[in-house]
Every structure is written in structure tokens, then in C-alpha cells.
Amino acid sequence: MASKEKIHLVDAGLKINSPYPTILRTERDVDLIISLDFSAGDPFETVFSAKEYACQQKLPFPPVNESVREENDHPQDCYVFEGRRPEEPTVMHMPLFNLQNCQGQC
């Protein structure tokens, strides 16, 4: 790279604000995705966006229950969305602003 006059870089989180598209490629054969959410908004937006992206691209993704959206204002510190089949990764999702870190003031 140092010998090239010009290089092009792309933010891996450009599409979903997280690098899910690069990780979900089937040739990666990923078993576990550690998803860290640092946004002050919806703490599940990236997970649901990744789920939708995976569905559109016909990529394996674990089930994510819509009921977690009820916890938008008071998320836990860690959620595990477990793959049901060998090709589905497990996603450990950790919102930064959660009941543990914010002591109920999120």
C-alpha cells in the first residue's frame, strides 16, 4: 500500500453503522459476533438492521425477538441471540448505555 499514489478506504460501518456486512459473508464462517452498540438512540437498531440485511442477502443470522424493542429505554448490559443452525452465528449484543452502566438514568 505504501507504494501506491492513491488508496481508497471505506468505513466498515457505513451501511449499518457496524461492520455486519463484512462479517456476515459466508466464506468468513463466523461462529460468534460481539456487537457493541455505542449509540445514544435505539440500542437494537444495528442488530435489527443487520438481521434485515442478512435476510435480504440470504445470509444466515440468528433469530432476534421483536420483544427486545420493549427494552429500548432500559436495556440490559448483554443480550445473546443464539444461532439455531450450525451456519447461523451467535450474536452477543452489548449496548453501552444500559441499566448496569447508567444506573437507571439512560
Tally of discrete structural domains: 1
Average pLDDT figure: 84
- Widest sheet, order of strands: 1-3-2
Distance between the termini: 43 Å
Give a topology summary.
Layout: H1 20-23, E1 32-37, H2 45-57, E2 79-81, E3 90-95, H3 99-102
Characteristics:
14% strand; 106 residues; globular; Acyl_Trfase/lysoPLipase; lipid degradation; alpha+beta; 20% helix; LysoPLipase_cat_dom; 3 helices
Kindly summarize this structure in a few lines.
Keywords: Hydrolase, Lipid degradation, Lipid metabolism. This is PLA2c domain-containing protein. With 106 residues, the protein is an alpha+beta fold.
Can you walk through the features of this model?
The protein has helices spanning 20-23, 45-57, 99-102; strands at residues 32-37, 79-81, 90-95. The protein has 106 residues and is of the alpha+beta class. The protein has one domain. Strands 1-3-2 form a three-stranded mixed sheet, with no helix packed on it. A hairpin with an 8-residue loop joins strand 2 and strand 3. The longest helix has 13 residues, at 45-57. The radius of gyration is 16 Å and the shape is globular. The termini are far apart. The model has no long low-confidence stretch (mean pLDDT 84). Keywords: Hydrolase, Lipid degradation, Lipid metabolism. GO terms for molecular function: calcium ion binding; calcium-dependent phospholipase A2 activity; calcium-dependent phospholipid binding.
